């Protein structure tokens, strides 16, 4: 096992992290050979506060059962100027409906965690700064530049077009807001 105490990058879900020597990997499945074997549904996660400069959640959050708990842990373990990358299937994607997926996301799913958001249906004592967010689409739709249009007017896309032209993913880059 690599020396994990000196690494500043964390990858949640080790399945797609083969060969990442500069990162600590976490997974529930020992077959993925993670550096840390842990169920991310169980909090607290086995890391100290402010441990990481970068955290990657690539197709992980949809497998968890409690998003508020996971977001709180992401906030806790990421440094003040750190960056969290999240990618998850959009709920309209055929990939969102896998039997092992517990949560589904749209463009606004993380808004109650974002500072200054208009969509706050749940109050949290921690917030994130939004650095970047986008909906991605299959290349057949990108060919017509529809992704550019829908990312400019996401509310219109989500309300009127999502079942006609399904999306693929939600991608988000956020930063924890800390004193």
Separate helix tally: 4
State mean pLDDT (0 to 100 scale). 90
What is the total domain count?
1
Which sheet architecture does the biggest sheet show? 7 strands, mixed
Q: What's the CATH class label?
A: Alpha Beta
How would you describe what is shown here?
With 179 residues, the chain is an alpha/beta fold. The chain has a single domain (4-177), classed as Rossmann fold. Helices cover 17% and strands 27% of the residues. It has four helices and seven strands; from the N terminus they run ββββαββαααβ. The chain has helices at 67-77, 139-142, 146-152, 154-161; strands spanning 9-12, 23-27, 36-37, 52-58, 78-89, 127-136, 169-177. It has a seven-stranded mixed β-sheet. β4, α1 (67-77) and β5 form a beta-alpha-beta unit. α3 (146-152) crosses α4 (154-161). The longest helix is centred in the middle third of the chain and has 11 residues, at 67-77. It starts with 8 loop residues before the first strand and ends with a strand. The relative contact order is 0.16. The model has no long low-confidence stretch (mean pLDDT 90).
Concise account of the structure shown:
With 179 residues, the protein is an alpha/beta fold. The chain is 17% helix and 27% strand.
Tell me the layout of helices and strands.
Elements lengths: L8 E4 L10 E5 L8 E2 L14 E7 L8 H11 E12 L37 E10 L2 H4 L3 H7 L1 H8 L7 E9 L2
Parallel strand pairs: 1-2, 1-4, 2-3, 4-5
Antiparallel strand pairs: 5-7, 6-7
Helix pairs in contact: 3-4
């Amino acid at each position: 096992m690599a020396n994990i105490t000196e690494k500043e990058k964390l990858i949640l879900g080790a399945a797609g992290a083969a060969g990442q020597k500069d990162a600590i990997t976490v997974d529930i499945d020992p077959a993925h050979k993670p550096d840390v074997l842990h169920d991310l549904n169980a909090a607290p996660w086995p890391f100290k506060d402010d441990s990481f400069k970068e955290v990657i959640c690539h197709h992980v959050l949809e497998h968890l059962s409690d998003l508020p708990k996971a977001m709180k842990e992401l906030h806790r373990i990421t440094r003040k100027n750190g960056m969290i990358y999240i990618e998850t299937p959009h709920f309209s994607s055929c990939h969102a409906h896998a039997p092992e997926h517990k949560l589904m996301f749209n463009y606004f799913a993380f808004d109650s965690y974002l500072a200054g958001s208009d969509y706050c249906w749940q109050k949290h004592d921690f917030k994130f700064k939004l650095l970047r967010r986008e909906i991605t689409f299959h290349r057949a739709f990108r060919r017509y530049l529809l992704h550019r249009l829908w990312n400019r007017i996401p509310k219109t896309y989500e309300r009127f077009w999502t079942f006609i032209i399904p999306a693929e993913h939600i991608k988000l880059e956020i930063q924890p807001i800390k004193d």
